[in-house]
Design brief:
Elements (H helix, E strand, L loop, with lengths): L1 E6 L4 H13 L4 E6 L7 H7 L4 E5 L5 H10 L6 E5 L4 E2 L4 H11 L3 E9 L22 E3 L6 E5 H6 L12 H11 L3 E11 L11 H16 L5 H15 L3 H14 L8 H9 L7
Parallel strand pairs: 1-2, 1-4, 2-3, 6-9
Antiparallel strand pairs: 4-8, 5-9, 6-8, 7-9
Amino acid sequence: MVAVVLTQGNRAAALQLAVDSLLRSGIHKVVLVWNADGVPDTETNRIASLPEVELRVAGRNLGIPGGRNFGVHYCDGDYIVFLDDDAAVHSKHLASRIREHFITHPKCGAIAFRIVDEENNTQRRHHPRIGKVGLNRPGKVATFAGGACALRRTTFLEAGAFDASFIYAMEEQDLAWRIYGNYSEVHYLPDIRIFHPPSLPSRHPSYLEKTWHNRVVAAYKSLPLWIRPIYLSLHGLRTHRMGLSTGDLIRLSNIARKSVNEKFPLRPAVILKLLRIGRPPIL
């Protein structure tokens, strides 16, 4: 089993912990992607000197989804783990647990892990269900966090991988809809715990604008015409309340809509399944 970790050389201590935790949990290889301009720094090269670590240089910042796609090109085996470079695995038997679940659940194409902080709490935005409901309940979910998950390699590639144009934000939801559209599922295993320090999406510049743009792209790619206005209206109102002006909402919507080249509309049966698992594609 292989893991993909992105780095830009600004978290050496955390990166070392991330890599060490993966190797202790049964991962046999870590593809470390230098996702930045220039060449890897001394600390990154030192970490990459481990025999189980394979350093790959992207040559420039490909964005989060693009960097992960780049790393997958160098992965062998059936299953891929994605981990943020400031996260750490808290489950000693990560690899065997993932392998067992994929084998016993052939429809599962992606696994979401539970993300916890120093006090064992999970931020709302890291939970794949609505609010705090079902934090400790395994089962089907409609999305996952890209920095703490596992995917079947075949599922990932057949669904088209992450949309690299997103750079960051909404790439997991976009891929999750395509996974369900390809007759596969996303499962949540809260017994697999990943440490990640608390963080806010506002740490990224223009996060509201980028999230709204990518949300519109994902909606036009995957949501049928009858449900798309409901989804965008609800999220547009929420985004407006968070601070994005009406003018920017309209402007970014027009840009996003024109950038969509391929569409993968969800079938009614898939929308019904998402409704049954508690997250219909209007939320």
